[in-house]
Amino acid sequence: MIEQRFFRFLQERIGLDVDSVGAPMVERALRQRCVVLAARDLDDYWLRLQQSPGEQQALIEAVIVPETWFFRYPESFTALAGLAQKRLVELAGSRPLRILSLPCSTGEEPYSISMALLDAGLSPSAVRIDAMDISPSSLARAEQAVYGRNSFRGSELAFRERHFDCTDDSYRLHERVRQQVSLEPGNVLDPALRSRKGVYDFVFCRNLLIYFDVPTQQRVFEVLKQLLHDDGVLFIGPAEGSLLARLGMRPIGIAQSFAYVRQDQLGVQPPVNPVPPARPAIAPVASPRPVAMPVAAPPFARAPRPPARPVALATVNENESELLAAIARQANAGASEQARASCERYLRLFEPAAQVYYWLGLLSDTQGDAGEALKHYRKALYLEPQHTEALLHLATLLASQGDVTGARRLQERAARAGRESER
Prior knowledge:
Layout: H1 4-14, H2 18-21, H3 23-37, H4 42-51, H5 53-63, H6 74-91, E1 97-101, H7 108-119, E2 127-133, H8 136-144, E3 146-147, H9 158-163, E4 164-167, E5 170-173, H10 175-178, E6 181-185, E7 200-204, H11 214-227, E8 228-235, E9 249-251, E10 259-262, H12 320-332, H13 336-349, H14 354-366, H15 370-383, H16 388-400, H17 404-422
Parallel strand pairs: 1-2, 1-7, 2-6, 7-8
Antiparallel strand pairs: 3-5, 4-5, 8-10, 9-10
Helix pairs in contact: 3-5, 4-5, 6-7, 12-13, 13-14, 14-15, 14-16, 15-16, 16-17
């Protein structure tokens, strides 16, 4: 198929796994660029693409569709404010706090960081925020700092009154917020980033990895880990924790912050991903963009469900949601055996839940028991075929066993499930 060369180009230049966005999207972008350049056909366009760095960037931007808004995943910014105050005390004025937003898209994320820290009382001179993106047009919009209503979502919009001026149907960001952020072009796979090794106290890289194949995901995580200071914190998207345990990182334990640090004690079992404590039997909050499709259940024989046991059989202060919350706390604290025992208790008292089998899978995975992990992840997906994190963790496990095709299939399902959930 003639488009394969364009797919390879995008993979090599920006690490894009074309299957994650769908071949039709890329083909549509190719048609658009052919029209703009009045290219005779794809062969003609390919020649022009090879000869023009500007056209290479134009094709990349035609494929990339940014989807972002202010204070997306607000718990992350609440966590950042507290952690930043503590870090500044440790620095004792020796240098400013350094934060990276990559990719920063049209600026909503780095400006949210700036607003969160200003609202927390941090001095502008005490913070430096670097914001990088591969798209010059996105950076140009971030530089203008004028936003429409789509950049403001949810019910908590008091920040808009504090930090923006309303102009007709748009909102202009205050200069005090803008001046904390330094915008620049950049690619997470650019070798030049190595010069910033250990520079950043906090790195935000969210909802990017689902667009990469497994090897590229691993490369990107290694880059992000290197950019962090030894005591630094990495903020990721809700469905992107599948590689962190294998890279020596652990969650900080603040629910829904999706924040990770290095595993600082050798031999300690890495705790599992933070999960919202009161969301029984559903997938964790999912990550970005387009459409979901019906998917087949994994191929394993389903045992008959045991009848539901009444909550009265639990202890006086224990019900279903409380037990799920206890599992989350234990798992996030690294108490693997307690978390496993709580999972088994849940399965004795209540109907099977995908979230509980996901936890059991992750506990087995981090302990190196691949066989048990596979079994539990597949049970989770049988009960809930679009459980995003179970899909991603199982994909990583299959890839580590050499099943690249199976891993890619699961990644595609996870990407579609995440996009539909966010819609």
